[in-house]
Amino acid sequence: MHKQLIKLTVNGDTHELAVAPNQTLLDVLRNELGMTGTKRGCTAGSCGVCTVNGEAGEAICSCLTLAIEWDGRAVTTIEGVQEGSELHPVQQAFLEYGAVQCGFCTPGLIMTAKALLDVNTSPTEDEISEALAGAICRCTGHIKVKKAVRRAAEMLRERDAAAR
Amino acid sequence: MSAKKEELSVVGKNWSRLDGVDKVSGRSIFTDDVRLPGMLYGKIVRSPHPSARIVSVDTSAAEALPGVKAVITAADAQGILIGMNQPLLPTKFVKFVGHEVAAVAALDEATAAAAAKLIKVEYDVLPTVLDMTKALRDDAPQLHQKAKRNVGWEENLDYGDPDAAFAACDVIREGEYVTNPSHNCYAEYHVCVADFTKAGQLTMWTPTQTALLFQKSLAAGLKLSDSDVRLLTLNSGGGFTGRTATRPHHFLAALLSRKAGRPVRIRASGDEEFTMCHAGGKVIYKLKSGATKDGRLKVVEADLLFDSGAYVESQMIVTLLTSRYLGALYPIQHARYRGRLVHTNNQPYYFHHGGGIAQFQFALGQHLDGLAQDLGLDPVEFNLLNAVEEGHTTLEGSHYASCGLKECIEKAAAKSGWKDKRGKLPKYKGIGIGIGAMASGAKGLFKHDTSAAFVKIADDGKATLFIGLPDMGQSSHTTMAIIGAEVLGITPDDFQVVSGDTASDPLDVGAFTQRGTFNTGNATRNACLDAREQLAATAARQLDVDADRLVFRDHRVYPDGEPDRAIPFKKVVYDTLHSLEGRFVMGRGFYNSPLKKGTMAYSFGAQIAEVTVDPGTGVVTVDRMTVAHDVGRAINPRIVEGQIDGQVFSGMSQALYEECVMENGQIMNPSRLDYKMPRAFEMPEVDHIIVETVDPNGPFGAKEVGEGPIVCTMPAIANAVADAVGRQVREMPMSPWRVLRAIQ
To answer: I want to staple B182 with a disulfide (CB 3.0 to 4.6 A). Which of A84, B21, B229, B352 is the partner?
Structure first.
């Protein structure tokens, strides 16, 4: 299969890459760019560990996304969530509330939570559960993850209020 | 007798995990992230048949494919056994679907997969036996000459005089329960990277619960000295009792690497994850118990049939472990245990989360709930009447130096509102109790149950702890830092924990049999006490007091009762090194239970489940779980809660959902989508009650919390379902169709 040149912006940096038409975004992030923060799970869209955020901040499974579809577009990965040397409120809340155990699904969970909170800083319980429905986490049983998302929403609301 | 609760300054507070920042920011490295120069990608060729004779294996087309660097077949794997009797690559017969036949290594995953497809294996399909009860018949195909009627292992144990005990009982109950094949579903798929390019020296990266046993197993199989196998454990994406033994892919990656002269990675692809895992097999539990009319349980008899699959990989451990839990919860003197591993043409099984013990408790917990009702007793009453207490010695000889079982039952019952709910709920709503015990360590599986630790303290007052205990998410490294910090009077964030390289790690049996907090915790405590003694010598001279009068607390060292004379901890370390002696502070410690076999401490728990059953669909919703667990001492309470949460999830998941649906030896639902686990919206609220009995032998009184809670979850939910629908659902998972069948 002939490779094709694409321009892909990851966490603000634009890369010009030659990719095969069947290469996934996950593959390009991990193997072409060496950004292994995004994890490889089921590669079938059912576990959520490879979640990254698209241009509008939406949660996407990078394992089901062809890299060539993202020519000229931008994604955010777990490596781009931290704000300078400060953790993002979602990251802080995950730490504070013990929502991290083995850590393999954590990047995907954080990107999933961030996608929700970027558009809705006052999610209901049902909205949190629905947003997390595509992510599997055997270690935490989702319990502290849900609490962390609630706490992150609160932190983001406080931050918004302070900025006003 | 429980130890006095000493006043602690570090243990018992909520500490963030030391690896937390790395884990939330994408910095944490797992095995799949390892890329070595020239690394190849391996792919395994597997049998599609549950039983067949291998007629021929033709690798020529695969070898001719550009990009293929090595192909191995049975000829390359002579004499390597998996478990007791499974040849790594069989020469003549394949005995289960997924049985490894050959393997390839190529420049990329796609080429490796294409090459694997080009390997032509001709099979002569043979009769199969997939059902344990059929395998026991005389006319069943025999899988192994030595295993008569396909019984590959048998354990028979009698305690006391069970027959006489039954004869003296007023109420006797019998019942049969079943648990089905399941899969651990770790977040991180099976993966390893092998570098066997230097003659006689293997380096391997892989997630594991026990680098020591992996090292020994690889060395034995590959005819190397243990120290010539270097195991590198990075982060491990979950363990759940499933990463305690090497699997065929570990050996195949090593052999491919040796043949190709390049490092090789093998990683399970999609449905192959289920084939590689060999998690829990089907078990049939025949139970009988007897009680006197005063409600006292007197005797339990268990006859267990385990589907071992085509070989005995490690299931004999399950027979040993389940036998130990017959009398762990009740002070019975009489019991009979029979456990048989039965060969079938299913995949050779290891175990799912709970190690067979939790699954056994699904059966025993329901059975005894029924016995309580036969006796006319409320299950909470029955359990309180019969529960073991401190000072009890189990049938196999373990002594309970601390035991909070009754306290757990009382507190869980009170918090859940049991009295107001049991028998008073509307139809199709139910409440049930499950209780459990879990050993902290299991000496007897090996001659020693040793953990060792080193600590060094730099002249800036920071400590580096070296341990061999893996952290698969349970936060064991942070737990060890907390224990060390308490001893030295500093804080956990003063610690770096170095672990994961057999070349530098002190010996540790590993993170399984719930031995980490107890064994490695004691080793860490001992290492830090050793270091403290070295520092105390300096401080004693400076303060002109006896060393044993010194207190190490809040980064200071002072004579007991005279905190105003304190010297900063950092200064004591500095002065110890920058002296004529130049002593660099290094502590060493180890811990091995003084018992010949058995366990020094057990954790205990009680859980109460509240459920709603939809009578139209049979779907069970868990509304609330009230969990009380006696952990001895909560070193890091939030982490204890996290352990409880994860086990409630896993217990509920196994109780209600998880099943490898089998057809002709093939798993029909090998994906994260089709193999169901709870999603976030299906999880109930969990109330945590941490009971602290302060065990005299645990580090600061701590016992395990890694697998105790899950033992209670399955019977709690099962008993709640029985309460809701009026009949027990005796087969796990309690899938909607099984619940409906019980209702109708």
So the answer is: B352
Distance CA B438, CA B703 (A): 9
Sequence spans of domains, chain A? 4-80, 89-163
Which of B238, B649, B679 comes nearest A102 by C-beta? B238
Looking at residue B260, its pLDDT comes to 98
Q: Is A11 within 8 Å of chain B by CB?
A: no
Neighboring chain B residues of A136 at a CB cutoff of 8 Å: 185, 187, 672, 677, 679
> Do the chains contact at A98 and B639, CB–CB below 8 Å?
yes
Q: What is the mean pLDDT of residues B716-738?
A: 98
B646–chain A nearest CA distance, Å: 5
Range of the domain at B257: 34-126+186-239+243-277
A 87-126: CB under 8 A from B: 87, 91, 94-98, 100-107, 110, 126
All residues of chain A having their beta carbon less than 8 Å from the beta carbon of residue B269 are 43
- B93 and B200 inside one domain: yes
Structure tokens at B339: 């456990």
- B540, B574, B591 - which closes a domain: B591
The domain boundary residue, chosen from B591, B623, B649: B591
pLDDT classification of B314: cutoffs 50, 70, 90: confident
Give the right CATH number for A89-163 from 1.10.150.120, 1.20.120.80, 1.10.490.10, 3.30.470.30: 1.10.150.120
pLDDT in tens, B592-608: 999 888 889 999 999 99
- Residue B93: name the closest of B124, B58, B115 by CA: B124
A161–chain B nearest CA distance, Å = 25
Task: Please indicate, yes or no, whether residues B428 and B459 belong to a single structural domain of this protein.
Answer: no
How far apart are the C-alpha atoms of B457 and B575, rounded to whole Å?
Answer: 12
Instruction: Give yes or no: residues B529 and B675 share one domain.
Output: no
Q: How far is B740 from chain A (nearest CA, A)?
A: 26
Look up the CATH number of the domain holding residue B491. Answer: 3.30.365.10
Kindly state whether A3 is in contact with chain B, defined as any CB-CB distance less than 8 angstroms: no
List pLDDT tens digits, range A15-24.
999 999 999 9
Residue ranges of alpha helices (H) inside B154-278 are 162-167, 211-222, 248-260, 272-277
Interface with chain B: mutation pick from A143, A144, A155, highest number of B CBs within 10 Å? A143
Name which of B293-302, B388-397, B609-618 the model is least confident about: B388-397
pLDDT score recorded for residue B1: 39
Nearest to A101 among B22, B273, B473 (CB): B473
CB of B37 within 8 Å of any CB in chain A? no
Answer whether A30 touches B (CB < 8 Å): yes
Sort out which chain A residues have CB atoms less than 8 A from B209's CB and list them: none
CATH architecture of the domain covering A4-80: Roll (3.10)
Same structural domain, B103 and B203: yes
Angle, to 10 degrees, between the axis of helix B521-543 and the axis of helix B569-577?
80
> Which of A95, A135, A141 is closest, CB to CB, to B648?
A141
CA distance B286 to B340: 12
- The pLDDT tens digits of the residues spanning B575-584 come to 999 999 899 9
**Residues from chain B contacting residue A105 (CB–CB below 8 Å):** 187, 237
The per-residue pLDDT for range B240-249, each reduced to its tens digit, is 999 999 999 9
pLDDT at A1 over 80: no
- For residue B405, the number of C-alpha atoms closer than 13 Å in the C-beta half-sphere is 31
Q: Which of B488, B574, B477, B500 is nearest to B531 (CA)?
A: B488
State the CB neighbour count (10 A cutoff) for residue B594: 8
Same domain, B432 and B488: no
Looking from the CA of B239 toward its CB, the CA atoms found within 13 Å total: 32
- Partner residue opposite B645 with nearest CB, options A47, A103, A140: A140
Residue B270 and residue A44: Cβ atoms within 8 Å? yes
| Mean predicted confidence (pLDDT) in B178-187 | 95
Half-sphere exposure of B647 (CA within 13 A, CB side): 32
In chain B, the number of structural domains is 3
